[in-house]
Amino acid sequence: MKARVAGLVFSYGGFRLEIGELVFPGSRVTAVVGPNGAGKSTLLKCLAGILAPERGGTFVDGRDLARLGGRERARLIGYVPQEPTYMFNYAVLDFVLTGRAAFIPRFSSPAALDLEAAREALQYVGLADLERRPFFELSSGERRLVLIARTLAQRPSILLLDEPTTFLDPRHETEVMALIRRLAVEKAATVIVTLHALDMALKYADSMVFMKAGVVVAAGPPDHILDEALLRSVYDVDIGIVDVAGRRVLVR
Amino acid sequence: MSGSRDRRTAVIAVLAIVLPILLLVLSLNLGAYRIPPKDVLPILVKAIFSDGGGASPAADVLIRIRLPRLLLALFAGAALAVSGASLQALFRNPLVFEFSLGISYGAAFGAALSLVFLGAKVPAQAAAFVFAVAAVLAVLFVAGRGASQVVTILLSGVIVSALFQALLSLVEFFANPYALQALIFWLMGSLGQATWTDLTISLPVIGVGVAALIGLRWRLNVLSLGEDEARTLGVDVRREKVLVIILAALTTAAATAVTGVISWIGLIVPHLVRMAVGPDNRKVIPLSAAFGASLLLLADDIARSAFAIEVPIGILTSVVGIPFFIVLLKRSGKAWL
Protein backbone atom coordinates (compact mmCIF):
# COMPACT_ATOMS: atom_id res chain seq x y z
CA MET A 1 0.00 0.00 0.00
CA LYS A 2 1.48 3.30 -1.10
CA ALA A 3 1.59 6.27 1.25
CA ARG A 4 1.97 9.80 -0.07
CA VAL A 5 2.70 12.95 1.89
CA ALA A 6 1.65 16.13 0.12
CA GLY A 7 2.04 19.78 1.03
CA LEU A 8 2.54 18.98 4.71
CA VAL A 9 3.32 21.87 7.04
CA PHE A 10 3.81 21.59 10.78
CA SER A 11 5.41 24.18 13.02
CA TYR A 12 6.24 24.19 16.68
CA GLY A 13 8.02 27.12 18.27
CA GLY A 14 10.82 28.09 15.92
CA PHE A 15 10.79 24.73 14.15
CA ARG A 16 8.99 24.28 10.85
CA LEU A 17 8.49 21.02 9.00
CA GLU A 18 7.63 21.43 5.35
CA ILE A 19 7.29 18.53 2.97
CA GLY A 20 6.32 19.19 -0.64
CA GLU A 21 5.74 15.65 -1.82
CA LEU A 22 7.06 12.37 -0.57
CA VAL A 23 6.06 8.88 -1.63
CA PHE A 24 6.60 5.74 0.44
CA PRO A 25 6.27 2.67 -1.79
CA GLY A 26 4.49 -0.46 -0.56
CA SER A 27 6.36 -3.64 0.44
CA ARG A 28 9.51 -1.56 0.83
CA VAL A 29 11.60 -0.24 3.68
CA THR A 30 12.12 3.51 3.58
CA ALA A 31 14.73 4.92 5.95
CA VAL A 32 14.34 8.53 7.03
CA VAL A 33 17.74 9.90 8.03
CA GLY A 34 19.27 13.22 8.96
CA PRO A 35 20.91 15.03 11.87
CA ASN A 36 19.26 15.59 15.26
CA GLY A 37 16.48 18.13 14.99
CA ALA A 38 15.98 17.54 11.25
CA GLY A 39 12.31 16.70 11.84
CA LYS A 40 12.42 12.92 11.31
CA SER A 41 10.43 12.05 14.40
CA THR A 42 8.06 14.96 13.82
CA LEU A 43 7.32 13.67 10.33
CA LEU A 44 6.69 10.21 11.76
CA LYS A 45 4.35 11.60 14.41
CA CYS A 46 2.41 13.52 11.75
CA LEU A 47 2.07 10.26 9.82
CA ALA A 48 0.99 8.43 12.98
CA GLY A 49 -1.71 10.97 13.79
CA ILE A 50 -0.08 12.01 17.06
CA LEU A 51 0.61 15.49 15.69
CA ALA A 52 -1.89 17.29 13.49
CA PRO A 53 -0.28 19.17 10.58
CA GLU A 54 -1.43 22.70 9.88
CA ARG A 55 -1.70 22.09 6.19
CA GLY A 56 -1.47 19.20 3.81
CA GLY A 57 -1.50 15.63 4.94
CA THR A 58 -0.92 11.99 4.27
CA PHE A 59 -2.83 10.00 1.73
CA VAL A 60 -2.99 6.21 1.64
CA ASP A 61 -4.38 4.81 -1.59
CA GLY A 62 -5.94 8.22 -2.17
CA ARG A 63 -7.62 8.38 1.26
CA ASP A 64 -6.80 11.35 3.48
CA LEU A 65 -5.60 10.06 6.86
CA ALA A 66 -6.92 13.11 8.70
CA ARG A 67 -10.45 12.17 7.68
CA LEU A 68 -10.25 8.69 9.12
CA GLY A 69 -11.47 7.89 12.63
CA GLY A 70 -8.89 6.82 15.18
CA ARG A 71 -9.95 3.20 14.97
CA GLU A 72 -9.78 3.07 11.19
CA ARG A 73 -6.43 4.82 11.14
CA ALA A 74 -4.98 2.42 13.72
CA ARG A 75 -5.94 -0.54 11.52
CA LEU A 76 -4.09 1.08 8.65
CA ILE A 77 -1.03 2.58 10.37
CA GLY A 78 1.00 1.19 13.25
CA TYR A 79 3.49 3.25 15.20
CA VAL A 80 6.41 1.88 17.22
CA PRO A 81 7.51 4.60 19.66
CA GLN A 82 11.11 5.29 20.50
CA GLU A 83 11.73 4.97 24.23
CA PRO A 84 8.41 4.86 26.03
CA THR A 85 8.30 5.08 29.80
CA TYR A 86 5.51 3.09 31.35
CA MET A 87 4.12 3.19 34.84
CA PHE A 88 2.70 -0.28 35.03
CA ASN A 89 4.74 -3.41 34.58
CA TYR A 90 2.39 -5.49 32.45
CA ALA A 91 3.23 -9.03 31.41
CA VAL A 92 4.56 -9.19 27.83
CA LEU A 93 1.40 -10.84 26.46
CA ASP A 94 -0.91 -8.30 28.16
CA PHE A 95 1.22 -5.55 26.71
CA VAL A 96 1.12 -6.96 23.17
CA LEU A 97 -2.66 -7.37 23.52
CA THR A 98 -3.06 -3.59 23.75
CA GLY A 99 -2.24 -3.60 20.02
CA ARG A 100 -5.76 -5.00 19.53
CA ALA A 101 -7.52 -1.90 20.88
CA ALA A 102 -8.75 -0.87 17.42
CA PHE A 103 -10.61 -4.18 17.11
CA ILE A 104 -12.18 -4.31 20.57
CA PRO A 105 -15.29 -2.30 21.55
CA ARG A 106 -14.87 0.17 24.39
CA PHE A 107 -16.63 -1.87 27.05
CA SER A 108 -15.12 -5.22 26.04
CA SER A 109 -11.97 -7.17 26.71
CA PRO A 110 -9.80 -9.16 24.29
CA ALA A 111 -11.34 -12.38 23.02
CA ALA A 112 -9.69 -15.63 21.88
CA LEU A 113 -9.12 -14.15 18.42
CA ASP A 114 -7.17 -11.23 19.88
CA LEU A 115 -5.13 -13.53 22.07
CA GLU A 116 -4.26 -15.54 19.00
CA ALA A 117 -3.16 -12.42 17.10
CA ALA A 118 -0.97 -11.32 20.02
CA ARG A 119 0.66 -14.75 20.38
CA GLU A 120 1.25 -14.95 16.65
CA ALA A 121 2.94 -11.53 16.72
CA LEU A 122 5.20 -12.60 19.61
CA GLN A 123 6.01 -15.77 17.74
CA TYR A 124 6.93 -13.73 14.66
CA VAL A 125 9.48 -11.62 16.53
CA GLY A 126 10.82 -14.77 18.20
CA LEU A 127 9.78 -14.02 21.77
CA ALA A 128 6.95 -16.52 22.25
CA ASP A 129 8.70 -17.90 25.35
CA LEU A 130 8.59 -14.56 27.13
CA GLU A 131 4.84 -13.99 27.07
CA ARG A 132 4.44 -14.17 30.85
CA ARG A 133 7.52 -12.14 31.75
CA PRO A 134 7.01 -8.63 33.16
CA PHE A 135 7.92 -6.01 30.56
CA PHE A 136 10.41 -4.19 32.82
CA GLU A 137 12.46 -7.37 33.25
CA LEU A 138 13.28 -7.54 29.54
CA SER A 139 16.52 -6.35 28.01
CA SER A 140 16.53 -3.25 25.85
CA GLY A 141 16.64 -5.33 22.68
CA GLU A 142 13.78 -7.57 23.81
CA ARG A 143 11.68 -4.54 24.64
CA ARG A 144 12.11 -3.19 21.12
CA LEU A 145 10.99 -6.51 19.72
CA VAL A 146 7.96 -6.59 22.02
CA LEU A 147 7.03 -3.06 20.91
CA ILE A 148 7.21 -4.24 17.30
CA ALA A 149 5.14 -7.32 18.17
CA ARG A 150 2.47 -5.08 19.71
CA THR A 151 2.25 -3.13 16.45
CA LEU A 152 2.12 -6.39 14.46
CA ALA A 153 -0.86 -7.53 16.55
CA GLN A 154 -2.51 -4.36 15.27
CA ARG A 155 -2.12 -5.77 11.70
CA PRO A 156 -1.46 -2.44 9.98
CA SER A 157 -0.50 -2.05 6.31
CA ILE A 158 1.89 0.76 7.10
CA LEU A 159 4.48 0.51 9.88
CA LEU A 160 6.24 3.51 11.37
CA LEU A 161 9.27 2.90 13.58
CA ASP A 162 10.98 5.72 15.44
CA GLU A 163 14.70 4.99 15.82
CA PRO A 164 14.16 1.32 16.67
CA THR A 165 17.87 0.56 16.98
CA THR A 166 19.09 3.35 19.25
CA PHE A 167 21.04 2.06 22.26
CA LEU A 168 21.16 -1.50 20.92
CA ASP A 169 24.34 -3.55 20.66
CA PRO A 170 25.40 -4.68 17.16
CA ARG A 171 23.75 -8.09 17.45
CA HIS A 172 20.36 -6.71 18.52
CA GLU A 173 20.66 -3.86 16.04
CA THR A 174 21.10 -6.37 13.21
CA GLU A 175 18.29 -8.52 14.59
CA VAL A 176 15.84 -5.62 14.68
CA MET A 177 16.82 -4.41 11.18
CA ALA A 178 16.50 -7.92 9.75
CA LEU A 179 13.04 -8.16 11.31
CA ILE A 180 12.07 -4.81 9.77
CA ARG A 181 13.23 -6.11 6.38
CA ARG A 182 11.11 -9.25 6.81
CA LEU A 183 8.05 -7.12 7.58
CA ALA A 184 8.30 -5.44 4.19
CA VAL A 185 8.97 -8.68 2.33
CA GLU A 186 6.76 -11.21 4.15
CA LYS A 187 3.95 -8.98 5.39
CA ALA A 188 3.99 -6.68 2.35
CA ALA A 189 4.05 -3.74 4.72
CA THR A 190 5.01 -0.20 3.86
CA VAL A 191 7.79 0.32 6.39
CA ILE A 192 8.99 3.79 7.30
CA VAL A 193 11.83 3.89 9.81
CA THR A 194 13.86 6.79 11.19
CA LEU A 195 17.50 5.89 11.72
CA HIS A 196 20.77 7.39 12.84
CA ALA A 197 22.88 4.43 11.77
CA LEU A 198 23.56 5.19 8.11
CA ASP A 199 25.27 1.84 7.54
CA MET A 200 22.08 0.07 8.67
CA ALA A 201 19.99 2.27 6.37
CA LEU A 202 22.31 1.51 3.47
CA LYS A 203 22.17 -2.23 4.10
CA TYR A 204 18.46 -2.72 4.88
CA ALA A 205 16.52 0.11 3.23
CA ASP A 206 15.14 0.10 -0.32
CA SER A 207 14.71 3.80 -0.27
CA MET A 208 16.13 6.70 1.74
CA VAL A 209 14.87 10.13 2.68
CA PHE A 210 17.48 12.69 3.75
CA MET A 211 16.14 15.47 5.93
CA LYS A 212 17.68 18.62 7.31
CA ALA A 213 16.10 21.56 9.17
CA GLY A 214 12.54 20.46 8.47
CA VAL A 215 12.83 19.85 4.73
CA VAL A 216 13.64 16.88 2.49
CA VAL A 217 17.06 17.27 0.90
CA ALA A 218 16.99 14.10 -1.19
CA ALA A 219 14.80 11.02 -1.55
CA GLY A 220 15.10 7.81 -3.55
CA PRO A 221 16.95 4.49 -3.72
CA PRO A 222 20.36 4.81 -2.02
CA ASP A 223 22.16 3.74 -5.18
CA HIS A 224 20.71 6.73 -7.03
CA ILE A 225 21.02 9.49 -4.49
CA LEU A 226 23.79 8.65 -2.03
CA ASP A 227 27.13 10.36 -2.57
CA GLU A 228 29.76 12.11 -0.47
CA ALA A 229 28.50 15.58 -1.39
CA LEU A 230 24.99 14.76 -0.12
CA LEU A 231 26.33 13.40 3.18
CA ARG A 232 28.48 16.46 3.63
CA SER A 233 25.59 18.87 2.99
CA VAL A 234 23.20 17.00 5.30
CA TYR A 235 25.51 16.19 8.22
CA ASP A 236 28.18 18.93 7.91
CA VAL A 237 30.89 16.32 8.32
CA ASP A 238 33.04 14.40 5.88
CA ILE A 239 31.92 10.82 5.35
CA GLY A 240 33.66 8.83 2.68
CA ILE A 241 32.05 6.12 0.56
CA VAL A 242 34.25 3.23 -0.55
CA ASP A 243 33.61 0.02 -2.44
CA VAL A 244 34.42 -3.14 -0.51
CA ALA A 245 33.77 -6.39 -2.36
CA GLY A 246 30.94 -4.84 -4.37
CA ARG A 247 29.30 -3.21 -1.36
CA ARG A 248 29.37 0.47 -0.60
CA VAL A 249 30.72 1.20 2.86
CA LEU A 250 30.77 4.46 4.77
CA VAL A 251 34.03 5.53 6.39
CA ARG A 252 34.78 8.43 8.67
CA MET B 1 6.34 -19.97 38.52
CA SER B 2 3.49 -19.04 36.22
CA GLY B 3 1.42 -21.95 37.52
CA SER B 4 1.70 -20.79 41.10
CA ARG B 5 0.72 -17.27 40.03
CA ASP B 6 -2.38 -18.65 38.29
CA ARG B 7 -3.29 -20.58 41.39
CA ARG B 8 -2.83 -17.50 43.53
CA THR B 9 -5.05 -15.45 41.23
CA ALA B 10 -7.71 -18.17 41.39
CA VAL B 11 -7.60 -18.21 45.19
CA ILE B 12 -7.87 -14.43 45.29
CA ALA B 13 -10.82 -14.48 42.87
CA VAL B 14 -12.68 -16.94 45.10
CA LEU B 15 -11.83 -14.81 48.13
CA ALA B 16 -13.18 -11.75 46.31
CA ILE B 17 -16.59 -13.40 46.08
CA VAL B 18 -16.67 -15.09 49.48
CA LEU B 19 -15.19 -12.34 51.64
CA PRO B 20 -17.82 -9.60 51.17
CA ILE B 21 -20.66 -12.11 51.72
CA LEU B 22 -18.99 -13.58 54.78
CA LEU B 23 -18.32 -10.15 56.24
CA LEU B 24 -21.89 -9.06 55.55
CA VAL B 25 -23.29 -12.07 57.41
CA LEU B 26 -20.90 -11.56 60.34
CA SER B 27 -21.56 -7.84 60.48
CA LEU B 28 -25.31 -8.39 60.68
CA ASN B 29 -24.64 -10.17 63.97
CA LEU B 30 -22.45 -7.43 65.29
CA GLY B 31 -23.66 -4.48 67.30
CA ALA B 32 -24.79 -3.04 70.61
CA TYR B 33 -28.25 -4.61 70.34
CA ARG B 34 -27.70 -8.36 70.66
CA ILE B 35 -29.63 -10.53 68.25
CA PRO B 36 -29.01 -14.30 68.46
CA PRO B 37 -27.23 -15.36 65.24
CA LYS B 38 -29.81 -18.05 64.51
CA ASP B 39 -32.56 -15.41 64.48
CA VAL B 40 -30.92 -13.09 61.92
CA LEU B 41 -31.83 -14.95 58.77
CA PRO B 42 -35.47 -15.69 59.76
CA ILE B 43 -35.98 -12.03 60.68
CA LEU B 44 -34.59 -10.87 57.33
CA VAL B 45 -36.66 -13.36 55.35
CA LYS B 46 -39.80 -12.44 57.27
CA ALA B 47 -39.15 -8.73 56.76
CA ILE B 48 -38.73 -9.17 53.02
CA PHE B 49 -41.91 -11.20 52.57
CA SER B 50 -44.19 -9.26 54.91
CA ASP B 51 -45.01 -5.58 54.93
CA GLY B 52 -43.17 -5.11 58.22
CA GLY B 53 -46.32 -4.46 60.27
CA GLY B 54 -45.80 -5.13 63.99
CA ALA B 55 -42.08 -5.74 63.63
CA SER B 56 -40.05 -6.77 66.65
CA PRO B 57 -37.29 -4.50 68.02
CA ALA B 58 -34.74 -6.96 66.62
CA ALA B 59 -36.23 -6.69 63.16
CA ASP B 60 -36.28 -2.93 63.50
CA VAL B 61 -32.58 -2.80 64.39
CA LEU B 62 -31.65 -5.18 61.59
CA ILE B 63 -33.71 -3.70 58.79
CA ARG B 64 -33.75 -0.03 59.63
CA ILE B 65 -30.30 0.46 61.18
CA ARG B 66 -27.87 -2.34 60.44
CA LEU B 67 -28.69 -3.41 56.90
CA PRO B 68 -28.54 0.05 55.27
CA ARG B 69 -25.30 0.79 57.06
CA LEU B 70 -23.67 -2.43 55.92
CA LEU B 71 -24.88 -2.05 52.34
CA LEU B 72 -23.56 1.49 52.30
CA ALA B 73 -20.18 0.28 53.58
CA LEU B 74 -20.00 -2.31 50.80
CA PHE B 75 -21.07 0.08 48.04
CA ALA B 76 -19.00 3.06 49.23
CA GLY B 77 -15.91 0.86 49.65
CA ALA B 78 -16.32 -0.50 46.12
CA ALA B 79 -16.91 3.00 44.75
CA LEU B 80 -13.82 4.52 46.33
CA ALA B 81 -11.52 1.62 45.45
CA VAL B 82 -12.70 1.24 41.84
CA SER B 83 -12.53 5.00 41.21
CA GLY B 84 -9.04 5.13 42.72
CA ALA B 85 -7.83 2.21 40.62
CA SER B 86 -9.31 3.67 37.44
CA LEU B 87 -7.87 7.14 38.00
CA GLN B 88 -4.44 5.70 38.79
CA ALA B 89 -4.43 3.78 35.51
CA LEU B 90 -5.80 6.72 33.55
CA PHE B 91 -3.30 9.23 34.92
CA ARG B 92 -0.42 6.75 35.03
CA ASN B 93 0.23 7.83 38.55
CA PRO B 94 -0.05 5.42 41.49
CA LEU B 95 -0.65 8.22 43.99
CA VAL B 96 -3.81 9.65 42.40
CA PHE B 97 -7.20 9.16 44.03
CA GLU B 98 -10.46 11.03 44.53
CA PHE B 99 -8.72 13.82 46.49
CA SER B 100 -6.67 14.63 43.38
CA LEU B 101 -9.72 15.68 41.38
CA GLY B 102 -11.17 17.96 44.06
CA ILE B 103 -14.04 15.55 44.74
CA SER B 104 -13.45 15.28 48.49
CA TYR B 105 -13.20 18.99 49.26
CA GLY B 106 -16.03 19.79 46.84
CA ALA B 107 -18.27 17.38 48.74
CA ALA B 108 -17.06 18.70 52.09
CA PHE B 109 -17.86 22.28 51.12
CA GLY B 110 -21.32 21.30 49.89
CA ALA B 111 -22.09 19.52 53.14
CA ALA B 112 -20.79 22.50 55.10
CA LEU B 113 -23.05 24.91 53.22
CA SER B 114 -26.03 22.72 53.94
CA LEU B 115 -25.27 22.03 57.61
CA VAL B 116 -24.39 25.62 58.48
CA PHE B 117 -26.63 27.80 56.32
CA LEU B 118 -29.30 25.85 54.49
CA GLY B 119 -30.54 23.63 57.27
CA ALA B 120 -33.15 21.03 56.40
CA LYS B 121 -34.14 22.60 53.08
CA VAL B 122 -31.18 21.10 51.24
CA PRO B 123 -29.90 17.92 52.88
CA ALA B 124 -26.14 17.65 53.34
CA GLN B 125 -26.04 14.59 51.08
CA ALA B 126 -27.60 16.42 48.13
CA ALA B 127 -25.40 19.50 48.57
CA ALA B 128 -22.27 17.36 48.93
CA PHE B 129 -23.08 15.51 45.72
CA VAL B 130 -23.76 18.70 43.77
CA PHE B 131 -20.51 20.33 44.87
CA ALA B 132 -18.43 17.19 44.36
CA VAL B 133 -19.59 17.11 40.75
CA ALA B 134 -19.11 20.89 40.50
CA ALA B 135 -15.53 20.48 41.73
CA VAL B 136 -14.75 17.95 39.00
CA LEU B 137 -16.35 20.17 36.36
CA ALA B 138 -14.28 23.07 37.69
CA VAL B 139 -11.13 20.93 37.42
CA LEU B 140 -11.97 20.05 33.81
CA PHE B 141 -12.74 23.70 33.08
CA VAL B 142 -9.50 25.00 34.63
CA ALA B 143 -7.53 22.36 32.72
CA GLY B 144 -9.38 23.49 29.59
CA ARG B 145 -7.83 22.30 26.36
CA GLY B 146 -5.04 20.73 28.37
CA ALA B 147 -7.53 18.30 29.96
CA SER B 148 -5.88 15.42 28.14
CA GLN B 149 -2.55 16.30 29.78
CA VAL B 150 -1.94 14.50 33.04
CA VAL B 151 0.04 17.28 34.68
CA THR B 152 -2.45 19.99 33.78
CA ILE B 153 -5.38 18.11 35.18
CA LEU B 154 -3.61 17.18 38.42
CA LEU B 155 -2.52 20.78 38.96
CA SER B 156 -6.08 21.93 38.29
CA GLY B 157 -7.19 19.41 40.91
CA VAL B 158 -4.79 20.89 43.44
CA ILE B 159 -5.99 24.43 42.68
CA VAL B 160 -9.69 23.58 42.86
CA SER B 161 -9.16 21.57 46.08
CA ALA B 162 -7.37 24.54 47.62
CA LEU B 163 -10.24 26.83 46.63
CA PHE B 164 -12.89 24.57 48.17
CA GLN B 165 -10.75 24.09 51.25
CA ALA B 166 -10.58 27.87 51.69
CA LEU B 167 -14.34 28.18 51.19
CA LEU B 168 -14.86 25.40 53.71
CA SER B 169 -12.78 27.31 56.27
CA LEU B 170 -14.84 30.41 55.59
CA VAL B 171 -18.07 28.53 56.28
CA GLU B 172 -16.55 27.06 59.45
CA PHE B 173 -15.58 30.56 60.56
CA PHE B 174 -19.16 31.83 60.30
CA ALA B 175 -20.79 28.71 61.69
CA ASN B 176 -22.49 28.68 65.10
CA PRO B 177 -21.03 26.14 67.54
CA TYR B 178 -23.80 23.58 67.04
CA ALA B 179 -23.63 23.64 63.27
CA LEU B 180 -19.84 23.51 63.50
CA GLN B 181 -20.04 20.39 65.62
CA ALA B 182 -22.34 18.70 63.11
CA LEU B 183 -20.02 19.73 60.30
CA ILE B 184 -16.88 18.44 61.99
CA PHE B 185 -18.61 15.14 62.63
CA TRP B 186 -19.63 14.94 58.96
CA LEU B 187 -16.12 15.72 57.77
CA MET B 188 -14.71 12.86 59.83
CA GLY B 189 -16.87 10.45 57.90
CA SER B 190 -19.51 8.11 59.24
CA LEU B 191 -21.70 5.37 57.87
CA GLY B 192 -24.09 5.57 60.82
CA GLN B 193 -26.23 8.36 59.39
CA ALA B 194 -27.44 6.40 56.38
CA THR B 195 -31.17 5.99 55.94
CA TRP B 196 -32.95 4.01 53.26
CA THR B 197 -33.99 7.30 51.66
CA ASP B 198 -30.34 8.32 51.12
CA LEU B 199 -29.49 4.89 49.82
CA THR B 200 -32.22 4.68 47.20
CA ILE B 201 -30.43 7.51 45.40
CA SER B 202 -26.80 6.74 46.20
CA LEU B 203 -26.64 2.99 45.70
CA PRO B 204 -27.97 2.96 42.11
CA VAL B 205 -25.56 5.74 41.08
CA ILE B 206 -22.65 3.87 42.66
CA GLY B 207 -23.82 0.60 41.16
CA VAL B 208 -24.01 1.96 37.62
CA GLY B 209 -20.69 3.82 37.92
CA VAL B 210 -18.80 0.85 39.32
CA ALA B 211 -20.31 -1.48 36.72
CA ALA B 212 -19.32 0.88 33.88
CA LEU B 213 -15.76 1.20 35.17
CA ILE B 214 -15.54 -2.58 35.46
CA GLY B 215 -16.73 -2.65 31.83
CA LEU B 216 -13.86 -0.35 30.87
CA ARG B 217 -11.25 -2.43 32.71
CA TRP B 218 -9.27 -3.55 29.70
CA ARG B 219 -9.54 -0.15 28.04
CA LEU B 220 -7.75 1.22 31.10
CA ASN B 221 -4.75 -0.98 30.26
CA VAL B 222 -4.54 0.77 26.88
CA LEU B 223 -5.09 4.25 28.32
CA SER B 224 -2.41 3.62 30.96
CA LEU B 225 0.25 3.45 28.21
CA GLY B 226 0.01 7.19 27.69
CA GLU B 227 -2.01 9.49 25.51
CA ASP B 228 0.09 9.39 22.33
CA GLU B 229 0.38 5.65 22.35
CA ALA B 230 -3.29 5.06 23.12
CA ARG B 231 -4.12 7.36 20.20
CA THR B 232 -1.94 5.43 17.75
CA LEU B 233 -3.63 2.25 18.98
CA GLY B 234 -6.98 3.67 17.84
CA VAL B 235 -8.39 5.02 21.10
CA ASP B 236 -10.32 8.29 21.16
CA VAL B 237 -8.22 9.45 24.10
CA ARG B 238 -9.96 12.72 24.91
CA ARG B 239 -13.42 11.25 24.97
CA GLU B 240 -12.48 8.13 26.94
CA LYS B 241 -10.49 10.13 29.45
CA VAL B 242 -13.45 12.37 30.17
CA LEU B 243 -15.70 9.31 30.35
CA VAL B 244 -13.53 7.63 33.00
CA ILE B 245 -13.20 10.86 34.99
CA ILE B 246 -16.95 11.46 34.99
CA LEU B 247 -17.72 7.86 36.02
CA ALA B 248 -15.13 8.00 38.81
CA ALA B 249 -16.41 11.39 39.93
CA LEU B 250 -20.07 10.34 40.00
CA THR B 251 -19.40 7.18 41.98
CA THR B 252 -17.15 8.83 44.56
CA ALA B 253 -19.44 11.84 44.83
CA ALA B 254 -22.44 9.58 45.40
CA ALA B 255 -20.51 7.70 48.09
CA THR B 256 -18.91 10.72 49.77
CA ALA B 257 -22.25 12.54 49.89
CA VAL B 258 -23.72 9.94 52.26
CA THR B 259 -20.61 8.82 54.15
CA GLY B 260 -18.69 12.07 54.62
CA VAL B 261 -14.99 12.17 53.85
CA ILE B 262 -13.55 8.67 54.04
CA SER B 263 -10.13 8.86 52.50
CA TRP B 264 -7.34 6.44 51.60
CA ILE B 265 -9.53 3.49 50.63
CA GLY B 266 -9.12 4.56 46.99
CA LEU B 267 -5.37 4.46 47.41
CA ILE B 268 -4.76 1.43 49.60
CA VAL B 269 -7.04 -1.14 48.00
CA PRO B 270 -5.88 -0.88 44.36
CA HIS B 271 -2.25 -1.11 45.48
CA LEU B 272 -2.85 -4.16 47.62
CA VAL B 273 -4.64 -5.77 44.70
CA ARG B 274 -1.78 -4.96 42.29
CA MET B 275 0.74 -6.38 44.73
CA ALA B 276 -1.25 -9.60 44.80
CA VAL B 277 -2.18 -10.11 41.13
CA GLY B 278 -0.06 -7.67 39.09
CA PRO B 279 -1.11 -4.52 37.23
CA ASP B 280 -3.55 -5.97 34.63
CA ASN B 281 -6.71 -3.87 35.10
CA ARG B 282 -8.88 -6.74 33.90
CA LYS B 283 -8.16 -8.18 37.34
CA VAL B 284 -7.38 -5.01 39.30
CA ILE B 285 -10.69 -3.19 38.73
CA PRO B 286 -13.14 -5.98 39.68
CA LEU B 287 -10.95 -7.15 42.57
CA SER B 288 -10.70 -3.58 43.84
CA ALA B 289 -14.49 -3.47 43.94
CA ALA B 290 -14.66 -6.67 46.01
CA PHE B 291 -11.83 -5.84 48.40
CA GLY B 292 -12.74 -2.16 48.72
CA ALA B 293 -16.22 -3.24 49.77
CA SER B 294 -14.80 -5.78 52.24
CA LEU B 295 -12.21 -3.43 53.70
CA LEU B 296 -14.62 -0.58 54.34
CA LEU B 297 -17.14 -2.97 55.91
CA LEU B 298 -14.42 -4.40 58.14
CA ALA B 299 -13.20 -0.90 59.04
CA ASP B 300 -16.75 0.10 59.92
CA ASP B 301 -17.18 -3.01 62.09
CA ILE B 302 -14.04 -2.01 63.97
CA ALA B 303 -15.11 1.64 64.17
CA ARG B 304 -18.46 0.80 65.73
CA SER B 305 -17.62 -2.11 67.98
CA ALA B 306 -13.93 -2.22 68.91
CA PHE B 307 -14.08 0.71 71.30
CA ALA B 308 -16.44 1.84 74.03
CA ILE B 309 -17.66 4.69 71.81
CA GLU B 310 -17.98 4.74 68.01
CA VAL B 311 -14.87 6.13 66.32
CA PRO B 312 -15.44 8.14 63.10
CA ILE B 313 -14.45 5.81 60.29
CA GLY B 314 -12.69 8.57 58.33
CA ILE B 315 -10.20 8.89 61.18
CA LEU B 316 -9.67 5.15 61.28
CA THR B 317 -8.95 4.88 57.55
CA SER B 318 -6.59 7.87 57.72
CA VAL B 319 -4.63 6.43 60.64
CA VAL B 320 -4.10 3.25 58.65
CA GLY B 321 -3.87 4.93 55.24
CA ILE B 322 -1.28 7.64 55.81
CA PRO B 323 1.58 5.35 56.88
CA PHE B 324 0.68 3.15 53.93
CA PHE B 325 0.87 6.17 51.62
CA ILE B 326 4.31 7.07 53.00
CA VAL B 327 5.60 3.57 52.34
CA LEU B 328 4.25 3.78 48.77
CA LEU B 329 5.88 7.15 48.25
CA LYS B 330 9.25 5.78 49.39
CA ARG B 331 8.93 2.82 47.07
CA SER B 332 7.63 4.67 44.01
CA GLY B 333 10.12 4.87 41.21
CA LYS B 334 11.06 1.26 41.76
CA ALA B 335 9.45 -1.42 39.66
CA TRP B 336 6.96 -2.52 42.29
CA LEU B 337 3.76 -2.50 40.30
Walk me through this protein's architecture.
The complex is a heterodimer of chains A (252) and B (337). Chain A contains nine helices and twelve strands. By secondary structure, chain A is of the alpha/beta class. In chain A, β11 and β12 form a beta hairpin. The radius of gyration of chain A is 18 Å and the shape is globular. The model of chain A has no long low-confidence stretch (mean pLDDT 94). Chain B contains 14 helices and no strands. Chain B has helices spanning 2-28, 37-49, 57-91, 103-118, 124-143, 150-174, 177-188, 196-215, 217-223, 227-232, 237-259, 265-277, 281-305, 313-331. The mean pLDDT of chain B is 87. The A-B interface holds A 45, 48-50, 69-75, 77-79, 81, 84, 86-91, 94, 97-99, 101-102, 104, 106-110, 132, 134, 136, 154 and B 2, 5, 89, 92-94, 212, 215-219, 221-222, 224-226, 228-236, 240, 278-280, 282, 335, 337.
Task: Indicate the topology.
The complex is a heterodimer of chains A (252) and B (337).
Chain A (H helix, E strand, L loop, with lengths): L2 E10 L2 E10 L4 E5 L6 H9 L6 E6 L2 E2 L5 H7 E4 L11 H6 L14 H13 L15 H14 L4 E5 L7 H17 L3 E5 L3 H7 L2 E6 L2 E6 L1 H4 L2 H8 L4 E5 L2 E5 L1
Parallel strand pairs in A: 3-8, 3-9, 6-7, 7-8
Antiparallel strand pairs in A: 1-2, 1-4, 4-5, 9-10, 11-12
Chain B lengths: L1 H27 L8 H13 L7 H35 L11 H16 L5 H20 L6 H25 L2 H12 L7 H20 L1 H7 L3 H6 L4 H23 L5 H13 L3 H25 L7 H19 L6
Helix pairs in contact in B: 1-3, 1-13, 2-3, 3-8, 3-9, 3-11, 3-12, 3-13, 4-5, 4-6, 4-7, 4-11, 5-6, 5-11, 8-11, 9-13, 12-13
